[in-house]
Every structure is written in structure tokens, then in C-alpha cells.
């Protein structure tokens, strides 16, 4: 399937089977993240693979949005290596980690796996529970696994604004 077809059929899976993700598929997902572009190629992403019963139990104390996935990737960035824009010192790490997460999410879909982007968690609690260094900023959780047979896209999955509402050429002519 081509990329746009993949982008259309991929949906946020919120109900997973307990079938484990094969190590080879996990490696491909992690490689997709490794290959993702980052500002100034600083590669500040830091990915914690949570696939043991103990680590997944810890995660459940940090968020209710784990969906009992057999594998969760915790994606963050290291502030000591992320690129900062010289004009305002804006840290690109959050964007870099988001690009990495998107690449991994799409590779998971390409491999027949489901995922959902989770941003609903307390970063300080995540840092504490997983003993992250203070320089690591958690950005996203990515539960991954095989969709349960009862899993289906959200009813709003296919609803998209017309291009004219979100795409502008040369000037913003926003009509409310």
C-alpha cells in the first residue's frame, strides 16, 4: 500500500490483543524512529521500551491511557543535546521527539500493528517512576500491539476539514 493509503487506514487503537510484538517488528519500529529527521541532526530522542510486566505495571500508575498494550514506547528528548534556535532559544526537542514518534507509529501500522499516541500523563511522575535523568523530557507514550478483534476506528476518524480551511498559499486568508 502506498503512503497515503497507509495514512488513511491507520487509526488510534485503544483495544489491544495480548499477542506479543515480535522482536523483529520492534526492531523495525525502533529503526524508523532512529532514521527520523531531527533539528541540526542532533538526535536528542531517547526511547524507553516498556515490555516487561513490571514496567507496564509501573506505567499504569502514571496514566489510565495505556490500553493494556503489550508494548509501550516512552519517547522523550535530552535537553543537553537538543538544538536550540538562536533567536529565542526555543528547544526543538519536543518537535524532534514528535517526529520520531510519528515515524514509529506509521512503521507500526505498516507492519500490521496498532498504536495510539498518548500525551495524557504527568511528566514529573513518569520521570520519577522510571528514574529518568532530569535532562530527559517525556513527550509521548506509544502503546503498540495487535489490535483486538473488537477494535475499530473512532467514528470521527474519517472526518477531515476541506483543504481550504487548513491550507493557504502565500498569505493567511482565514474566513471564520
Give the end-to-end Cα distance, rounded to a whole number of Å: 37 Å
Largest sheet: 4 strands, antiparallel
What is the CATH topology descriptor? NADH Oxidase
What is the topology, as strand order, of the major beta sheet? 1-2-4-3
- Domains counted in the coordinates: how many? 1
State the CATH superfamily name.
Answer: NADH Oxidase
Order of helices and strands: HHEHEHEHEH
Overall number of strands: 4
Whole-number average pLDDT? 96
Structural class determined from secondary elements: alpha+beta
Class in CATH?
A: Alpha Beta
Low-confidence stretches: none
Helix tally?
6
Q: Specify Rg, calculated over alpha carbons.
A: 17 Å
Shape: globular
Helix-residue proportion: 25-40%
Cofactor: FMN
Protein name: Nitroreductase
Organism: Pelosinus propionicus DSM 13327
Family: Belongs to the nitroreductase family.
Tags for this model:
176 residues; alpha+beta; NADH Oxidase; 4 strands; Nitroreductase; Nitroreductase-like; oxidoreductase
Question: Could you please describe the fold and organization of this structure?
Answer:
With 176 residues, this protein is of the alpha+beta class. The chain has one domain (3-166): NADH Oxidase, CATH 3.40.109. 32% of the residues lie in helices and 15% in strands. It is built from six helices and four strands; from the N terminus they run H-H-E-H-E-H-E-H-E-H. Strands 1-2-4-3 form a four-stranded antiparallel beta sheet, with helices on both faces. The model has no long low-confidence stretch (mean pLDDT 96).
Amino acid at each position: 500500500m502506498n503512503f497515503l493509503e497507509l495514512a488513511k487506514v491507520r487509526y488510534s487503537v485503544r483495544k489491544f490483543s495480548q499477542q506479543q510484538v515480535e522482536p523483529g517488528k520492534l526492531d523495525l519500529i525502533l529503526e524508523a524512529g532512529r532514521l527520523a529527521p531531527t533539528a541540526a541532526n542532533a538526535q536528542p530522542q531517547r526511547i524507553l521500551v516498556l515490555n516487561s510486566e513490571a514496567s507496564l505495571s509501573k506505567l499504569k500508575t502514571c496514566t489510565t491511557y495505556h490500553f493494556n498494550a503489550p508494548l509501550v514506547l516512552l519517547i522523550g528528548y535530552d535537553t543537553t543535546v537538543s538544538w536550540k534556535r538562536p533567536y529565542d532559544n526555543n528547544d526543538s526537542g519536543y518537535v524532534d521527539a514528535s517526529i520520531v514518534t510519528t515515524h514509529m507509529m506509521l512503521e507500526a501500522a505498516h507492519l500490521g500493528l496498532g498504536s495510539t499516541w498518548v500525551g495524557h500523563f504527568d511528566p514529573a511522575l513518569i520521570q520519577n517512576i522510571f528514574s529518568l535523568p532530569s535532562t530527559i523530557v517525556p513527550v509521548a507514550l506509544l502503546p503498540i500491539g495487535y489490535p483486538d478483534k473488537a477494535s475499530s476506528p473512532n467514528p470521527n476518524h474519517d472526518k477531515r476539514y476541506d483543504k481550504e480551511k487548513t491550507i493557504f498559499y502565500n498569505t493567511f486568508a482565514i474566513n471564520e
